[in-house]
Amino acid sequence: MAVAKLAGAGAPEEAGALFVAATPIGNLDDVSTRLTAVLERASGVAAEDTRRTRKLLHSLGIRIAMVSLHAHNERSRIPELLERLLSGEDLVLMSDAGTPGISDPGMRLVREARQSGIRVSPLPGPCAAVAALSVAGFPADRFHFEGFLPARRAARRARLRQLEAAPETLVFYEAVHRLTAALEDMQQVFGSERRAFLARELTKIHESAYGETLADLCRKAASGTIVPKGEFTLVVGGAGRSGGDEAALESVLKALLGELPTAQAARLGAEIAGVPRRVAYRRALKLHAREQKPC
After folding, report:
1. Which of 59, 100, 153, 154 has the most CB atoms lying inside 10 A of its own CB?
2. pLDDT for 295 beyond 80
3. Pairing mode of beta strands 91-94, 119-123
């Protein structure tokens, strides 16, 4: 069923629409009712992996024609898909999981559809980067989504050095076989005490989260505490003005130590100053020892 009279300038009135559909990143219950409704009336699906998408459609009880659209064939598929859209078909663009175009194929098709005047409409839903940010407890009013870092160590470290001074929270995707090496490189470039949060298998049965600092994550990866299976999203705190942060932390701790035990003062100080708890505890111990020294 075409979306009549809703096409953009330059496309015929009977042109169809391209729906960019976010799909579950693990839990199939995250499928929206709107996505289901659009799939039930659309003419076809352009899928990154038709085998994986077929499983999702089967779980929804939907039968619909599919064509593959992945990183290696997107350019060659676009003319065929544009022709179908211009002739009046509604098509749904779907990646393996999450939102198409976000470290997944789809950008070229979306761009050329819009340039052809075809209506492109989002079907919002799961995105691993945003899901990890929502539970990391890091500032997210501004953030930098980096996606996958280069596979080679030299290139990876060069890119990390470019990001070292970025004040925004950083979000990365990482492959399981490169996770330990990437964490070690981040610790080397960003420093061991940079705050970090690692989410594994978000929304799935074995969902887990780790970390307070990059040093903490490196230890857990080396010891096998972080299970080396599944999909990983890493959130790293932005570069702060360390001198100002240390001065603020010390000021807060001095006030708290006058009223509270060291451990409790450190815990509250870490929350107020926005630093890792272990950093606040070490500083609290130093301040406490300084106060105990005889004049």
Report:
1. 100
2. no
3. unpaired
